[in-house]
Write a structure and sequence with these properties.
Layout: H1 15-30, H2 34-41, H3 45-52, H4 60-69, H5 76-79, H6 85-96, H7 99-112
C-alpha cells in the first residue's frame, strides 16, 4: 500500500537537491567552511559556492571526493534515504547495541519478518 507524502516548497524533490541538502548538513555538522571543503575536494571556492547554491552539478568523481571529505568511503552515503521518525528511533536503539546483540536482533528479524518464506507463520515466545 502506497503512503501519501506531503511535499512542501522547502523539501528537496530531486536527487541532486537531496545530495546538496546532505552536503550542506555535513558542512554544518563538521563546522567547516565552503572554502575548506573546496580545498579538501580539489575544487575551487567559487565552484563550491555555485554547487551549494544549485547553479552547477558535480560529476561522479567530485561526488566521491565530497563523500570522502566527510569520512565516508563511498558516494552512496550521499544518496542514503533519511528514515521517518519512527524508523530513525529504532535505528538509534539498534546502533546503541553491542555487536553481539545487533547480530541477535538481525537473526530474529530475518527469521520472523518473512513468514511466507519459511512456509508458515512463526511467533516469538
Amino acid at each position: 500500500m502506497a503512503v501519501a507524502r506531503t511535499v512542501t516548497a522547502d523539501m528537496p524533490v530531486t536527487l541532486d537537491e537531496q545530495v546538496r541538502v546532505r552536503v550542506k548538513a555535513w558542512i554544518r555538522a563538521h563546522q567547516i567552511t565552503q572554502a575548506e571543503l573546496a580545498a579538501a575536494t580539489g575544487t575551487n571556492p567559487t565552484w563550491m559556492s555555485r554547487y551549494l547554491n544549485g547553479e552547477t552539478t558535480p560529476d561522479l568523481e567530485t561526488l566521491d571526493r565530497l563523500a570522502r571529505a566527510f569520512g565516508h568511503t563511498s558516494i552512496t552515503a550521499l544518496f542514503d534515504v533519511v528514515p521517518n521518525r519512527e524508523d530513525a528511533e529504532v535505528l538509534e536503539y539498534y546502533h546503541a547495541l553491542q555487536q553481539r546483540d545487533r547480530t541477535l536482533i538481525y537473526q530474529l528479524l530475518k527469521r520472523y519478518s518473512h513468514p511466507r518464506r519459511h512456509g508458515k507463520n512463526k511467533t516469538v515466545d
